[in-house]
Design goal:
The protein has 82 residues and is mostly helical. The protein folds into two domains: 43 residues; 39 residues. The radius of gyration is 32 Å and the shape is rod-shaped.
Length: 82
Amino acid sequence: MTDTKFFDDLSAKLSELVKNSPARDIEKNARALLMQCFAKLDLVTREEFDIQAEMLARARQQLTALEARVAALEAQRHPAAQ
């Protein structure tokens, strides 16, 4: 049988090595750099975009309804124009 303690120790040592390695620092620095770049770009979240898209769809529906209403009122006021 294999000694699981050996593999557990090896796994723990490798995890500690990776945690303390320069790769971890590089990842942190890259994330910070990307976050700074994204902050300068005036981006919106997907949630904000979806809310704005929904509001625009409602505004378009209201505009269509108002255009129909204005056309009906104009037709009542000027029946000879048709």
